[in-house]
Batch of 2 targets.
Target 1
Amino acid sequence: MSDYAVIESGGKQYKVEEGSSLLVDRLDAKEGDKVALRPVLFRGDKDVVAGAKDLAKVKVEAKVTEHLRGPKIKVFKYKAKKGYRRRAGHRSELTRLEVTKLKGKG
């Protein structure tokens, strides 16, 4: 079984492996920059690390591949027979990360 970690970014948790790519909420970093991600759990070959002291030794690094916008989400509210109609849209600002280094304790 390969090593993996669960990281936290923007209040959400993601399961990552070395070489994997993921979309997170927009980070304040330029394309090509390396960012350190905060691990919540690490699973190695033989052990599982979940304690705060042991997680301080776990390193998860990722490279910012690109900044992009998510798909448009359309919102439409109305009340029947009242003439109330509201239309809105939303597009999330996202960042694509590629995990470059996943190093456990030890």
Target 2
Amino acid sequence: MQAVGRIGCHDDKKTYITPVTYAFDGNYIYGQSNEGLKLNIMRMNPSVCFEVDSMMNMANWESVIVWGHFEELEDSAAIKAREYLYNRILDLLTSSTIHLHEHGNSRELDDNNRIKHVMYRIRVTEKTGRFERQ
């Protein structure tokens, strides 16, 4: 199971691609975000591209690309989406062995900052993929 993919969105001036944590139910890709560039662009232009890959080595890999439409979720739909996403990624939350990148940072590790304010889904309209296995 993959938990991180890359979402691509585009406004009139630039294309923006960023990694996101996600869950896929067969029809929709669910994600969460705080306010920022990604959400601003997707609200202006809901046509997005999403890519996920897995690579064991150069002879064993797979990649999937989907196109779809961004939909911001609210109320009960957002609650259901958050539950679905968290049930899929709960085991992947921060480990107690993670190393903070700031030297001398003595903060306790806490996954509360992983809860984003906006839930969304991408309605998949087209998909393609490639793989190589040996």
